[in-house]
Amino acid sequence: MIERYETPEMKRIWSEQNRYRKWLEVELAVCEAWTEDGRIPVEAMSEIRRKADFDVARVAEIEATTHHDVIAFVSAVAEKVGNEGRFIHLGLTSSDVVDTAGSLLILEALAVIKGALKDFSGIVLEKAREYRHLPCVGRTHGIHGEPTTFGLKVLNWHAELTRDLERLELARRHICAGKISGAVGTYAHCPPHIEEKVCTRLGLARADISNQILQRDRHAEALTSIAILGSTLERIATEIRHLQRTEVLEASEPFAKGQKGSSAMPHKRNPILCERVCGMARLLRGYSLAAMENIALWHERDISHSSVERVAWPDAFHLAHYCLKTMSRVIGNLIVDPERMARNLELTKGLLFSQRVLLFLIDESGISREEAYAIVQENAMRCWAGEGHLRELLSSDSRVNNVLDEDSLDRLFDYGYYIRYVNEIFSRFEKSGKMIPQND
Questions:
Q1: Mean pLDDT value of segment 315-332
Q2: Distance between CA atoms of 400 and 365, rounded to whole angstroms?
Q3: Bridge partners, 315 (sequence order)
Q4: Quick check: is 89 catalytic?
């Protein structure tokens, strides 16, 4: 991970210090369980509790010889403890420690992501409420469609973020598991009740069944949920990038005092934060694929997943957290231009109202849909060609003015018609509890 994009919270969680600390928590929980079972003397456990610790540099020094990180760690802890260190790692295989501790690490990282997501969702909701009734162009295929409001656009983002939160919570439930079942999952050297005690002590559910490892569908779900969150953030960032284009310029990300957009063109204000998030979302999707490929391992376990996870887990959580914090900054300081939105609504000279005219002709004139469509489309194409405003072209068309008087035609070109249900849409979220409470 490039240091520039690290966040302090994730840097601490995925540090070697914290990883070994989680390993030690698991080892000590096993020792406590063995003590309760009578296998480790109470006096020895007291000594282990008092002295058990590690030094990251010493672990690295031993690993340089052993080429096995867990053996190096256990040896380093045993050195600290002394003679009673022989009871540490009793009846365990490395994955009992690494995978159970891995669950603790991912849970810790997920908690940070969930907190940042809730904060971001609140910012988005506040922005949606602020612009609830601000009319703007709704676009399909990148082409002007019909009027909408900027608040509805942003509320749609908020709705997606609530689903991201639900996915993360489900992933948290499935990753909240540990295993102390031995080399192939048979409990040959460490009975099931020890595993139950250890997992309870650590706040984890015990896996109903495992082999040498916790099965990697759990971890793939966590990384896939993060990747989907990344894609949500990319969707929001992509929309802002489009809205910031010179031809549109309805909204843009903040531009700091002293910031430069281009080494060659002093006028540039580029959407670099949103572009960065879009790029990082691609990495997150790549890590989710790698996590899914880790599911299929040989027999009771091979080691092909391990090297992937050493990179993918910390990097994916760093990326997701950085993207959330970045988009919080973007949306919290979003520059919105209502006047430009109003001008863009008029850009196509009334074409946004074509469907309403079509439906009115069908309802009021008694002509077929095909004929009504032909009338409106013919005048719309003339409007596209620059022959005038759609309303005036329709007014001068005898097939229309025989059915519609001027007042009726005016009413068809009313923006308020399109946004009359905005409050109802917002109320769905308020009634369902999907909104984070905010003051209007």
A1: 97
A2: 9
A3: none
A4: no
